[in-house]
Amino acid sequence: MKNINYGMIKKLKKNQNTEQLLPDFLNDMALLYYDYSYIKLALQYYTCYEIYEDCNPEEKTLVAPFYDKINELVKEEICEEATTNTEENLKKIDKLRSEMIELMQNLTAYTDGLQLFEYIINRMEFSFEEEVEKVDPWTLSQQTFQFIFNKKDNALINDKIRTVVSQLPVRITKKRFFDILNDSFSVYNGTTRDNLKSFLYMLRTSSMLDEVKIVKGFEDLFDFVKELSEADYSNVTKENYKRWVDMLTIASEKLNSFVDILLPLQEVINQIYTIILTKKMIITKDEEVEVSKSIISIVFNQFTNQTEEDYQEKTFDLLGKLEGTQEECYEKITVYESALYDFDQTMLMARTDMAKNIEIIDLCIKLSSNSLFISFEQQEDDLLPVDTSYLFHERDQFIEELDDFFKNHHKSVNRAVMAAILGNIPVFFNNQEEIKEYIEYALVHCNNQSELKATALILETLMNEA
User: What tens digit of pLDDT does each residue of 237-288 get?
Assistant: First the structure.
């Protein structure tokens, strides 16, 4: 595996001998990404095969098209080490990755929608009992406040505040809600537009402003979300409540199970993408790559029914040779990535002869990040600063859409949306006293005893799990 060339990095940071050293630096980075992707692909490809074998028939039918396309690329790029069709295969893997991102976005929309309705349905639990055990809102608010600040960790405190706010009954006025939402936009003044767009995307998914799309194999969930979105929560029967609870459980299990299949699959796609991107920059191949290829070839044969009786034993023996190599490689990558950000950016931009290689490295950085579904697409205005005019336009447009949504939905749905948004925006309290007052107001002004009792159980669960 490639060692870190600290001398080269030091000279590049000082802008010395860049003409010769920058190409060497980029090639070193490419080799590290190449090695890292091969090692990770060997591990994840094997994992994907094991997961696929455990899939139920419905899941296999849904994911088979993705597996087929991946196996086709593995055959060409790994098993046969294709030296041609690179650009064509790049287009194939990019298209496949885009399809996966779109699928995950649609499934995430289902998940966000179901979480909203779970907020509503959970608070009906005691609505059908003749007598509900009374909850002392003052005691509960005090316990909740103490839970938030029982550890002196600001990041943890902020997470607790957001979680608690997202579960409290919403008893503030719509005007107060919109005032808080208005203020939350101010932190994006002066940042780049892509940051504001990400914030707006989060708000839209939290509030279900964009209608969910029908996803093949999830038509039942689409119908369920539509039913809950249009329901009259003022007159819910006990039978409907029980049916909804059962359907929520089934829907959550189905979504979680399918997402668990997709995540390692996306890892595999990202690693293949990196290998195809970097292979033209590779001169020599390390031992780890050859070991990884052997593992991938064995697993590929299993996928294509060229089974070997002792494939697991062979695979485990080879995996043992890779122990610790992924971590070692990643540590080296972080050193090079950190150095790249420290280089004179004007120098990098001036090297038009290296533009293609720099672009490849930039894509590799994204593909190896923790954001598996990160988009490569960037709008022309993404890096422009957010000025007051742009901020107010985007904010007012969103708030207008949200206000229209509130006018067309039941109060229970609107409160669920408010709770979700308040739990996702930056913490909007200035001090502990404001937090204390907000909790007290929400609980004391909740006159619905069944909702208060359900909220108490949810908050007590949060406190006990912390």
Answer: 999 999 999 999 999 999 999 999 999 999 999 999 999 999 989 887 889 9
Q: Are 70 and 320 in contact (CB under 8 A)?
A: no
Q: Supply the pTM of this predicted model.
A: 0.90
Whole-number Å distance between alpha carbons of 436 and 149: 11
Rounded Cα distance, 314 and 183, in Å: 60
Q: Count of H helices and E strands in the chain? A: 19, 0
Length of the chain: 466
Contact assessment for residue 225 and residue 117, using Cβ atoms and an 8 Å cutoff: yes
Q: How many CB atoms lie within 10 A of CB 317?
A: 13
386 close to 199: Cβ distance less than 8 angstroms: no
Q: What is the DSSP string of 436-451?
A: HHHHHHHHHT---HHH
Domain ranges of the chain: 6-107+260-367, 135-257+385-465
Q: What is the pLDDT of residues 325-358, one digit of tens each?
A: 999 999 999 999 999 999 988 888 888 888 999 9
Q: Between residues 84 and 402, which one has the greater pLDDT?
A: 402
| Cα–Cα distance for residue pair 198/200, rounded to 1 Å | 5
Residue 75, CA atoms < 13 Å, CB-side half-sphere: 10
The DSSP code sequence of 166-194 is HHS---S-HHHHHHHHHHHGGGGTTSBHH
Express each pLDDT in 232-250 by its tens digit.
998 899 999 999 999 999 9
In angstroms, what is the C-alpha Rg of the chain?
Answer: 26
